[in-house]
Write a sequence for this structure.
């Protein structure tokens, strides 16, 4: 696995495989290997991570496609198709009703060939807080970049504050800001609300989310929780990771309430500015909702991107709901479980 992992994005290490294949709270994952007939040398692999989705408020056992890697000299359709078809043939025996994932551009033609269908492209919501980062990326000359950055700071930053309508929403609200080190039962109300708002959502429990975002282990996690609460109960939260001075949001869940959403976004933006973050990025798939409306109101620019959610429904999979209708989903990058 580790030898083939060098062909995967970010070349995951042993700790990553131990987490997903040995410590998954939904049960052990499965891995298929492709071997040369004569030498027995392993030349490819494909994994299935077990999990649950909430469908109409009920947990449904599913699989997440993962760790699909083939050595370059064997990247014809033969071993790749065989690996994928072997996986899907076992879904029913494992009691899994369908599989889903977000394959990269190289894997997408293969998963389509074996029966996965596209639900749609994810939407990326981006808000620029400071122009310097983007000037540095576009202008290689540092002296020119600094000069342009200072000029843009005088022009763009005030316009961002006014034109994008970033507002404070604290007045009249009794919501307090929390930055807990891990999830606990105070979040249960939000998870129940999310399952009522959308027909298909990722599973969210204390044990699962603490495992997913590494809050259940010794040492600091790369992820952070930012929440707002009404008394002792959380009303909304984000999970994010900062990379290259950008906060990448992996989960965003809240009550279906404009005051709650506005307070959460306002406080999160204020905290990001205080930390001198240059931008915020959030990817999701689903219908237009109050949340996406308020993201736009707060100046988040929305665009579709190449990342797509694909679903394979087993013969015994759910038929009462169309899992290929993006309007039924609320899918965030944390739900990909990768």
């Amino acid at each position: 696995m580790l030898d083939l992992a060098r062909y995967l994005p970010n070349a995951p290490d042993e700790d990553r495989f131990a987490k997903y294949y040995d410590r998954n709270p939904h049960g052990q994952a499965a891995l298929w290997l492709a071997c040369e007939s004569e030498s027995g040398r392993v030349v490819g692999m494909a994994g299935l991570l077990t999990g649950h989705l909430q469908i109409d408020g009920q947990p449904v056992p599913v699989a997440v496609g993962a760790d699909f890697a083939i050595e370059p000299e064997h990247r014809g359709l033969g071993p790749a198709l065989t690996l994928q078809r072997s996986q899907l043939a076992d879904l029913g025996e494992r009691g899994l009703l369908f599989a889903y994932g977000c394959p990269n551009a190289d894997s997408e033609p293969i998963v389509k060939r074996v029966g996965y269908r596209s639900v749609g492209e994810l939407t990326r919501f981006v808000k620029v807080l400071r122009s310097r980062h983007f000037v540095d990326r576009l202008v290689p000359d540092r002296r020119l970049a600094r000069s342009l950055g200072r000029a843009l700071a005088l022009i763009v930053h005030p316009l961002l504050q006014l034109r994008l309508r970033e507002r404070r929403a604290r007045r009249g609200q009794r919501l307090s800001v929390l930055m807990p080190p891990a999830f606990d039962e105070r979040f249960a109300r939000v998870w129940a609300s999310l399952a009522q708002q959308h027909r298909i959502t990722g599973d969210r429990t204390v044990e699962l989310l603490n495992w997913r975002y590494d809050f259940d282990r010794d040492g600091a996690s790369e992820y952070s929780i930012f929440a707002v609460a009404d008394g002792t109960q959380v009303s909304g939260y984000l999970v994010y990771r900062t990379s290259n001075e950008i906060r990448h949001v992996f989960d965003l869940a809240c009550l279906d309430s404009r005051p709650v959403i506005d307070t959460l976004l306002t406080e999160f933006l204020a905290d990001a500015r205080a930390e001198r973050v240059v931008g915020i990025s959030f990817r999701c798939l689903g219908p237009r909702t109050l949340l996406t409306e308020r993201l736009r109101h707060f100046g988040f620019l929305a665009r579709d991107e190449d990342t797509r959610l694909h679903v394979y429904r087993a013969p015994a999979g759910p038929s009462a709901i169309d899992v290929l209708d993006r309007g039924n989903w609320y899918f965030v990058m944390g739900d990909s479980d990768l």
About this structure: The first strand starts at residue 30 and ends at 35.
